[in-house]
Amino acid sequence: MKRNLLKRSLLIAPALFLIFCFNVQAGSRTQRQTQSAAVLTVGATPVPHAELLNLIKDDLAAQGITLRIVEFTDYVQPNMALISGDLDANFFQHIPYLESNDDWSAKLVSAFGVHVEPFGLYSAKFNNINQLPDGAIIAIPNDPTNGGRALLLLQANGLITLRDGAGLEATPRDVTGNPKNFRFRELEAALLPRSLSDVDAATINGNFALQAGFNPVMDSLIIEGAQSPYVNIITVRRGSEQDSKIIALRNALLSAKVKNYINNNYDGGVIAIF
User: Fold this and answer.
1) CATH of the domain at 258
2) Cβ(235)–Cβ(108) below 8 Å
3) Do 11 and 4 contact (CB within 8 A), yes or no?
4) Is the domain of 97 the same as that of 61?
């Protein structure tokens, strides 16, 4: 009898050990999944997007969410990284830019809007648009929506005329009236602040102007009004809009704390829409 009990014990022990190991592994896997689920990875350009995200890190941490911020200095990679799953969201663009690429607009969607960065015309050589000489070289962004935005800004201030129906994606080829014979140089948006010494003026996105140390309200020759349609958005993959982490991010960003920070730190260069 003792021999049989011993034999059964020897047979049962390995099985119990395997069950124990399985439970430990399953528990570790569940813990890793829980930890992963509590991380929110957001891609952003440095100013003001990453600054605003850093402002709410502790607020999200109090809810058990670790906010991981990945900084980008261009306008293409954040969408590619979001589509590939390397990011949970990104924060750098407006809807016209998102919709300028069919692949992006098919896979990505705006979760909510946060602010407007008024687009402006800057110069290192002139203090007034009336000083721009005949044949002046004006640098504009080389992506369709921001290039069109630049030309619309110039048109709104009577510097050029665009053909009817040119719309948000106007290009220099759509210029039908150009009294001062401006010449346009199309450059990557991030390079525009550095181009000022080589051109007569440059239209610069608000975030890159701020990053270069400009006060958009004080330093621009002309600037968009507060009613600009180019609201900067939190972008996510389609179907993720109501994810609990995205809702937590929305509540944290659209808060009095963030609005007060925007009003007190950007001198009108960033305008909260909430």
Assistant:
1) 3.40.190.10
2) yes
3) no
4) yes
Among 27-36, 232-241, 243-252, the minimum mean pLDDT is found in 27-36
By CB neighbour count within 10 A (0-12 exposed, 13-18 middle, 19+ buried), where does 264 fall? Answer: exposed
**Is residue 217 predicted with pLDDT exceeding 60?**
yes
Q: What is the pTM of this model?
A: 0.78
- Give the C-alpha separation, 272 to 92, whole Å: 14
Q: Structurally, how many domains does the chain consist of?
A: 2
214 and 134 within one domain: yes
Same domain, yes or no: 127 and 257: no
Q: How far apart are CA 94 and CA 82, in angstroms?
A: 15
Token pair listed for 149 = 């935005």
Q: End-to-end CA distance of the chain, in Å? A: 80
- Mean of the per-residue pLDDT values for the chain? 89
Unique residue bearing structure tokens 């813990």: 31
For residues 104 and 240, membership in a common domain is answered with yes
Percent of the chain with pLDDT over 70: 86
Task: Give burial (CB, 10 Å; 0-12/13-18/19+) of 185.
Answer: middle
The residue that leads in pLDDT, 58 or 217, is 58
Domain residues for 106?
Answer: 38-117+229-272
Q: How far is CA 254 from CA 57, 233, 262, 268, 273, in A?
A: 14, 12, 11, 18, 9
Domain shared by 84 and 60, yes or no: yes
Q: 225 pLDDT band (50/70/90 cuts)?
A: confident
Residues in contact with 260: Cβ distance below 8 Å, sequence separation at least 6, in sequence order: none
Q: Which of 230, 231, 238, 226 is nearest to 112 (CA)?
A: 231
Structure tokens at 56: 């709410």
